[in-house]
Amino acid sequence: xxxxxxxxxxxxGLAGTIGLLVILAISLIGPAVAPYNPDASVAAPALGPSxxxxxxxxxxxxxxWSRFLCGGLSVIVLxxxxxxxxxxxxxxxxxxxxxxxxxxxxxxxxxxxxxxxLPPFLxxxxxxxxxxxxxxxxxxxxxxxxAPSITRVIRSATQAIRPREFVLVARARGDSVRWITLREIxxxxxxxxxxxxxxxLTFAVMFIASLSFLGLGVQPPSPNWGVxxxxxxxxxxxxxxxxxxxxxxxxxxxxxVNLIADALTxxxxxxxxxxxx
Amino acid sequence: xxxxxxxRGLAPYLRLPVRLVxxxxxxxxxxxxxxxxxxxxPARAALGKAATPAQLKAxxxxxxxxxxxxxxxxxxxxxxxxxxxxxxxxSGQSVATxxxxxxxxxxxxxxxxxxxxxxxxxxxxxxxxxxxxxxxxSAVSGITLGLAALxxxxxxxxxxxxxxxxxxxxxxxxxxxxxxxxxxxxxxxYLLPAITIALTIIxxxxxxxxxxxxEVDSEPYIRAAILRGVHGPRLTFMHVLPNAAPPVxxxxxxxxxxxxxxxxxxxxxxxxPGIGQLLVQAVGSRDLPVVQAITIIIGAVYVLVNTLxxxxxxxxxxxxxxxxxxxxx
Lengths: 277, 329
What we know:
The structure holds 2 protein chains of 2 kinds.
Chain A (H helix, E strand, L loop, with lengths): L1 H7 L2 H23 L30 H7 L2 H28 L1 H15 L3 H12 L3 H27 L3 H9 L3 H9 L4 H24 L11 H7 L9 H27 L10
Helix pairs in contact in A: 2-3, 2-12, 4-5, 4-7, 4-9, 4-10, 5-7, 6-7, 7-10, 10-11, 10-12, 11-12
Chain B lengths: L4 H4 L2 H27 L4 H6 L5 H10 L6 H14 L12 H35 L5 H14 L3 H15 L21 H30 L2 H8 L4 H27 L1 H11 L4 H10 L3 H29 L7 H4 L2
Helix pairs in contact in B: 2-5, 2-14, 6-7, 6-9, 6-11, 6-14, 7-9, 8-9, 8-12, 9-11, 9-12, 11-14, 12-13, 13-14
């Protein structure tokens, strides 16, 4: 509790947390309070905002406000799953290569170097071209692309902890590799890990929303903010709310997570400079 | 990378070419694997559900898909080296023809964006870094933070909305750029997409320039210069800039190829007929030869630019030479 209060005392931490909570509330409560079925055509197409349809209707006559309320969940959940996946792979590979060293380390670092030498966006597009569009494919693709950079961060953090006394004692006791990495080393790299996760999450939110906007991620007719921006683009010139509201919501989400990442860096003593890529 | 003592002396000279070749090979293996990974049949995907078995077989034979894998990979590499990029499944057109003009347009688009970004972010970053902690500095930090967290398509659409719809200034649709392969043929359709891409690069470079200027500013030799009476622009440009520039130039060079994600999205937002727009279409319709060709070209440019940028910065700053590459996390 004290830690949370101290975190919220950092201005970006407070702002980011408020923004994130607002977006979370919309996404979680939204589907329950949406006035219309988000996938059904309920009125004439392309109506302007009115009392019955707060944000008007889209080109297929669907209620934009209802689609907005239902469209946030996948914008948040897909990046969360992708980053969690990358985190599991990255922690396993990073802890093992950092702790064991030797040939395990060589293989891991070489692989990481090669993957990181390529632009992530390109890799994800190649994976999508191979396996098709859709939510599950982009989650796997983004996880695969982010795992190497998390591996690299965890590896160097692990190497810094490895020569410490408590690790040496555990080795002398004859503890297993699993115990030493997970119980002795892992708790000590949690700060590094949290900052890295928050940074990755910012990118993942933007990345997956962009893919959905390009028609390669979440597929229409699913209500999703990225998809909504793409499908309502032609309305921008007549009345812009169906484009601007989901676009701004995505921006608020990404900025909030980014602020939290910055605040975490400050919170843990600025060990890692706020880096952006 | 090369750890045995015998190699250590050579390592600095070998590292770059070795990494270059390895990365290029990784791109081509990856792109080739994609052909195998495709669940289902590329022939079926290209010809549609109504295709007869005979037609499918003919398609496979025509594209060499009936040969064993190692043979396919060999031929794939051979074609790559010879620059034969195949024909598009979707249009039947030669991939090289489909890509050529688009590549040129994208190159100019990125170049303009990159120039805008460099001209804005380096001065602004330096300026705010030398005033660290002031109101102006906080404002710059806030703006770059916000910009950095805006997805490209949101930036692009906001620009369209403000400039095109509210102000009614520029064309908000760049499809006309199709008639000119160079920006001086039709500059206005290049401008908004270029600004959008620039806005995705600016926060990154500005923050870096700021951090570097701030660091250099606290160095003893700068204080010595100030004590000697050097001040104003002379101090900024003659003393701070040369010392703060190399890492910033490096990052800027990386952004030239690294902004590919932003380019793909931006071209789609503005209907700009470049290589990124084609890539999205090809990925969506799983037109593998086109995806392969574009991926390999972009991958090669990316790897090449990064390698050159690294080498360039190392040449610019002698003190970076010995151990700096170890320090990266």
